[in-house]
Amino acid sequence: MLLDRMIAFHVQHGISVPLSGPEFLQGLQQRFPERDGMYFLPDQVTEYDRKRTTATQLRQLSFFVNDEHSAIQWIRQQLQDKPQSFQDLQPQFMRELQAWAKHEQTVELKVILEQNFLHYDGRGPVPSQIHSYLSTNFKDHRNLDKEDSRLIEKARDRWYVPDPNKQADLDQIRERALLKEFEEIKESSQRRIKQFRTEAVRAGFKACWQERDYATIVKVAAKLPEAVLQEDEKLLMYIDNAQTRLGDDA
Fold this sequence. Notes:
This protein has 250 residues and is mainly alpha-helical. The protein is 60% helix and 5% strand. The strands form two sheets. Strands 3-5-4 form a three-stranded antiparallel sheet. A hairpin with a 2-residue loop joins strand 1 and strand 2 (38-39). Helix 2 packs antiparallel against helix 9 (164-187), helix 9 crosses helix 10 and helix 10 packs parallel to helix 13 (233-249). It is globular. The two termini are 34 Å apart.
């Protein structure tokens, strides 16, 4: 949500977004204390730590999975403290798809994992994220070296949440794939596109905004269902501001 607000501020003021998603998240980690996936001001974190010690359990926020964006957040929640294999995650993921939006193109779990998370194939030392989970939850795997064959075998084929440095590389791969799909939407001969990958349109609108290609934003928006656009704040932000820019240039 913080990242969305940062992007919205720059778009609404007609200036280029100065940071990529990973750079913004790295900046948060460098400047603010982090606890349980949340960021605090220095004077707030002390109070949170105090109350956290008195809580018997921290309840996780439940995600309502209805599109690719919420699916990514749901998977991140599942893998954050428990790296899992595709086979373990697939049945859980399928149960969450019951409310998938009709206009939203279905994205397979494998694609989401490959574009947003990392996979340990058993080569090299066990990643810290998996090592921490196994050493904490399995007594016979505690105090084992990251290159111990027993630990490697237990860790093999698990997906896990990348650290911010590797997240940047993944985001570049994902953005290229999304922009390729956006090009297909842009060049489509269909007057109305009923089902599409919203994340691809968001990535495309962002790229067009950076290039000051406001006409393409308006052109693609005309192909998409009006009702869907009105309910999507991110898309609507780009469209409204692009229309304003085109009006100013006229």
